[in-house]
Design brief:
The protein is mostly helical and about 750 residues long. It has 37 helices and nine strands.
C-alpha cells in the first residue's frame, strides 16, 4: 500500500480494486453513525482490514479531524499499543506521563475516526485504550478489526462472513486478470469457477493466493490439486474442514510450489515487523543459499505469487508481508534453526542504519526513513539477545528519540538497557549522555544530573573526549534552563570548543546557539559573534535543523537588541527550515518569539494569534513556557499583557483561539508565514479576463487570504478536506504560484483593482 498522509488522515491509497461486499460496506457505515466503537470480527483472511479501510475512505468527509489507520500487527508488547496510536496520529511522546494520558489530552478537543487494525493479540490493551480515549473525547469514533471482540461496554460487533458466491467469482476474476489479462468468466467456465471459490470457502486471501496460481494452471487443474489436498486434511468430509484449515492448506500449497530459494527468502523476510526496503532485505536475507544479487529477483517472484506485497512509503519502494503470511514464515524459520542467525543479521543491519550520520542536506529524508523503520527498530531492540548490542542500538537512535517525537519511548528503552548492561564500557558511557539528553528534554532535571554525573566519571576514566564534550554541553543546558546564566555561558563556551576539537561541528552549533541565548539575556556584547559563528558552522555542513537553531538564536539576539526587522526576518527563515520536521518544542519557541516581535511592530491582533499557535503546540505536548527558564516566562508575560491591553480580554481570547486552531507544527508554521513577503505577484490587470479561476476556486482563494487552513476552508464551504486540497492546488497551478501567501497577495490586488 502507498501511505499518503494528508493534513486530515493517513489512509493508504488502495493498490487493488475493492470487489463486492456492498451490503457489508453500507451496514458498517450505518452502524458507525450510531455507535462510537464498532468491531469487525472474523477469521484471518476474511477481509476485515480491506473492508475497514474502504469504510474509512468513504467516511472521510464526515470527520473534520481526520481518519487515521493504526496497524497493530507489528506491535507485540501490549504496553506499546498506545504508542502505535500516537505515532499514527502524529502525537509526539515527549513527556513523562503515560502515552495513553497524552493521547487522551490530545483527543479531548478533537473528533476523528481511528481504525485499530489487527487487535486480536492485544485485546486487553486495545480494550483499555478504547475505553480511555472514548471517555476523553465525545466526538471520537473507533473502528477495530479483530478475530475476537474487545468485550467492553458500548462495543458493537459485526461478524464478517466469507464472500457471497458472486462476489467471490468477481474477486477471482479481478485478481487473475492482473496476472493473466485475457482471463474471463464465461458461461462455459462459470460453474467451475464457482466450484473453485466454494472450495476456497469464499475467503478473500485464499482466493487471491489461488488467483496467483492461475497464471500457469487452468481452473480445472487448480480445483483438482486443491481437492486432493483438502481430502488429505479431512478424510474426504467437506463438512469436517473449518475455514481456518482451508487457508492454512492453501498457504502450505503456495509454500510447496515455491522454489527452495523462494521459500528460504520467505522465511527470512518474516523477521521484519513491518514493511522493509530492498537494502534491508539484501543485508538480512542474503547468504547461506541466497546470493545478494538474487534477492531482488526472488522478491519479484514472491510478489508475482502474492506472498510479498509491494508498497511505498515517502516515495520509496518497499515490500511487506500480510500478518498471516508473516506468521507462517516465522514458524518455518523457527523450524529451520536459522531464526537466531537471521535475528542477529536483522539487529546488525539496523544498528549500522542507526549509526549513520543524520546531519547534512539529506537530514529530512533521513529522519523520515527512521520513522518508516520504527516497527523494525523496535523488533531489533526486542530480539537482539545481547544486552550490550541493545544498549548500543538504543543510544545510536538518539536522533530518532529526540527529533522524531519518541522521547517517552526512548526513555523507557534507555532505562531498561542501562539496567540490563551495567558494565562500565564505551557503550554505557554513550548511552548515559543520551539518556541525560532525553531527561533534559523531558524536564526531569534530577534524573538528568544523575546520568550526567555517571557519564562524566566514565568518560574521564575511558578518556572519551566525545562523551566529555557532550557532558559539558548538557551541564550548560541545565544551567540555562535553571536560570543560572553566567554558569551556562561558561559551560557552553567550553563545550563548544570541545565539540570542535573532536570534529563534532554540528554539536558545536547547538551548543553555541544555547550559549547565545544565555548571552542575550545577560546583554553580553559577544552575543552576535557567537550567533554568527553558529550560523557559519551550520551553513558549512548543510545542516537544516542546526541552521534553524542558529537562526533562532540570531533572531532572539536581534529582538533583545531592539532590531525587530532583523529578528522577524531571522525567525521566519528559521520556521521555513523547520517545515517537514515534527519539532513541537522548537516551533513553539519560534512562534513565541515571532509573536513578541509582531507585537513590537504594532500588530497586536496578529501577535495574539501567534501566541495562540504557540500555546496550542505546548498544550499538545504538555510543555509550559516555564520549561525554558524564567527569562522566557517574563518575556511571554510582557507580550501577553501588551496584547490584552491593546485588544481587550475578549478579542485576545478570540485571537488565541484562531491561532490555536491549526494542527501540529507544519500547519502552525504555514499559518505564521502566510503574511511573509513573497516574490512579486503580477498585478490583477495582467491576468486574463475573465479570471482563470472557477467561482468555487475564487471562494477558496478568498478564504486562503484570511489565513484559513485547508481543513478550515473545507468546514466553512461544506467540502471534503481532499476537495479543498485540490482547489488550492488548482489555484497554485493556474498561476504557477509557489505558496499560499502569493494567492493572498494576488487576491488582495484583485479586490483593489475591482473596487
Amino acid at each position: 500500500m502507498t501511505v499518503q498522509i494528508s493534513e486530515v488522515g493517513n489512509l493508504p491509497a488502495a493498490l487493488t480494486t475493492f470487489v463486492g461486499r456492498r451490503r457489508d460496506l453500507a451496514e458498517v457505515r450505518r452502524r458507525l453513525g450510531t455507535t462510537r466503537l464498532l468491531t469487525l470480527t472474523g477469521m484471518g483472511g476474511v477481509g476485515k482490514t480491506r473492508l475497514a479501510l474502504e469504510v474509512a475512505a468513504a467516511s472521510a468527509t464526515a470527520f473534520a479531524d481526520g481518519v487515521w489507520l493504526v496497524d497493530l500487527a507489528p506491535v507485540w508488547d501490549p504496553s506499546l499499543a498506545a504508542n502505535a496510536v500516537a505515532s499514527a496520529l502524529g502525537v509526539p511522546d515527549l513527556g513523562t506521563r503515560p502515552v495513553i494520558d497524552q493521547l487522551a489530552a490530545f483527543l479531548a478537543h478533537r473528533a476523528p475516526l481511528i481504525v485499530l487494525d489487527n487487535c486480536e493479540h492485544l485485546v486487553d490493551a486495545c480494550a483499555e485504550l478504547a475505553h480511555v480515549l472514548l471517555s476523553a473525547s465525545s466526538g471520537l469514533r473507533i473502528l477495530t478489526t479483530s478475530r475476537r471482540a474487545l468485550g467492553i461496554h458500548g462495543e458493537h460487533v459485526l461478524a464478517l462472513p466469507p464472500l457471497a458466491p458472486d462476489d467471490a467469482v468477481e474477486l477471482l476474476r479481478d485478481r487473475t486478470r492482473a496476472v493473466r489479462p485475457e482471463f474471463e468468466v464465461t458461461d462455459g467456465n462459470r460453474a467451475q469457477i464457482l466450484r473453485l471459490c466454494e472450495g476456497l470457502d469464499g475467503l478473500p486471501l485464499a482466493i487471491e493466493l489461488a488467483a496467483a496460481r492461475l497464471r500457469t494452471l487452468t481452473v480445472d487443474e487448480a480445483i483438482s490439486r486443491l481437492e486432493d489436498r483438502f481430502g488429505l486434511l479431512t478424510s474426504g468430509s467437506r463438512v469436517a474442514r473449518p475455514h481456518q484449515r482451508t487457508l492454512r492448506a492453501l498457504i502450505d500449497w503456495s509454500h510447496e510450489l515455491c522454489t527452495p530459494a523462494e521459500r528460504l527468502l520467505w522465511h527470512r523476510l518474516s523477521v521484519f515487523a513491518d514493511d522493509f526496503g530492498l537494502d534491508a532485505a539484501e543485508d538480512v536475507c542474503a547468504g547461506d543459499g541466497i546470493g545478494r544479487d538474487e534477492v531482488l529477483d526472488l522478491l519479484d517472484r514472491l510478489v508475482a505469487q502474492s506472498i510479498v506485497l509491494p508498497c511505498e512509503r515517502k516515495g520509496l519502494p518497499r515490500y511487506r508481508l500480510l500478518a498471516t503470511i508473516r506468521q507462517y514464515g516465522l514458524e518455518r524459520l523457527a523450524e529451520s534453526g536459522e531464526e537466531e542467525l537471521i535475528r542477529q543479521r536483522h539487529h546488525a543491519f539496523y544498528l549500522a542504519f542507526a549509526e549513520r550520520g543524520w546531519h547534512g542536506p539529506g537530514q529530512l529524508n533521513s529522519l523520515a526513513r527512521l520513522r518508516a523503520e520504527h516497527a523494525n527498530l523496535r523488533a531489533a531492540l526486542v530480539h537482539s539477545g545481547d544486552a550490550q548490542a541493545t544498549l548500543a542500538l538504543t543510544a545510536a537512535l538518539r536522533f530518532h528519540w529526540c527529533e522524531d517525537g519518541f522521547l517517552g519511548e526512548g526513555r523507557r528503552w534507555l532505562d531498561q538497557a542501562l539496567v540490563a548492561a551495567p558494565e562500565p564500557g564505551p557503550a554505557r558511557a554513550r548511552a548515559l549522555w543520551v539518556a541525560a539528553w532525553v531527561a533534559v528534554l523531558q524536564r526531569d532535571h534530577a534524573t538528568a544530573y544523575r546520568w550526567v554525573d555517571e557519564a562524566a566519571e566514565l568518560g574521564e576514566r575511558l578518556d572519551d573526549r566525545v562523551v566529555c564534550a557532550q557532558v559539558q554541553s548538557l551541564r550548560g543546558m541545565l544551567a540555562l534552563f535553571s536560570g543560572r546564566l553566567e554558569d551556562a555561558v561558561s559551560l557552553l563556551e567550553g563545550a563548544a570548543a570541545a565539540h570542535r576539537d573532536t570534529g563534532q561541528d554540528v554539536g558545536a552549533v547547538y551548543t553555541l546557539a544555547q550559549m547565545a541565548i544565555a548571552q542575550s539575556h545577560l546583554g553580553d556584547p559577544r552575543t552576535t559573534q557567537t550567533c554568527r559563528q553558529a550560523l557559519a558552522l551550520a551553513e558549512a555542513h548543510g545542516e537544516r535543523l542546526a541552521h534553524a537553531h542558529a537562526l533562532w538564536a540570531l533572531g532572539y539576539n536581534a529582538w533583545i537588541r531592539g532590531d525587530h526587522k532583523e529578528a522577524m526576518a531571522r525567525i521566519r527563515t528559521a520556521l521555513q527550515k523547520e517545515q517537514g520536521f515534527n519539532a513541537y518544542v522548537r516551533v513553539a519557541l519560534m512562534l513565541e518569539q515571532l509573536a513578541w516581535t509582531t507585537a513590537a511592530h504594532g500588530d497586536r491582533e496578529e501577535a495574539g494569534r501567534l501566541l495562540g499557535a504557540a500555546r496550542a503546540l505546548r498544550r499538545d505536548i504538555d510543555t509550559p513556557i516555564a520549561t525554558f527558564g524564567p527569562d522566557m516566562v517574563e518575556q511571554h508575560a510582557r507580550c501577553e499583557e501588551e496584547v490584552v491591553w491593546a485588544l481587550g480580554p475578549a478579542a485576545y481570547e478570540k485571537a488565541l483561539a484562531e491561532g490555536g486552531s491549526h494542527r501540529g507544527p507544519s500547519e502552525a508554521i504555514a499559518y505564521a508565514l502566510r503574511t511573509e513577503s513573497e516574490p512579486p505577484v503580477p498585478a490583477a490587470a495582467t491576468f486574463p479576463a475573465p479570471s482563470p479561476l472557477t467561482p468555487r476556486e475564487r471562494e477558496v482563494a478568498a478564504l486562503v487570504t484570511k489565513g484559513m487552513s485547508n481543513r478550515q476552508i473545507a468546514s466553512t464551504l461544506g467540502l471534503s478536506p481532499r476537495t479543498a486540497d485540490r482547489h488550492v492546488q488548482n489555484i497554485l497551478g493556474k498561476f504557477a504560484f509557489g505558496s499560499r501567501a502569493q494567492i493572498a497577495s494576488w487576491w488582495s490586488a484583485t479586490q483593489v483593482a475591482t473596487a
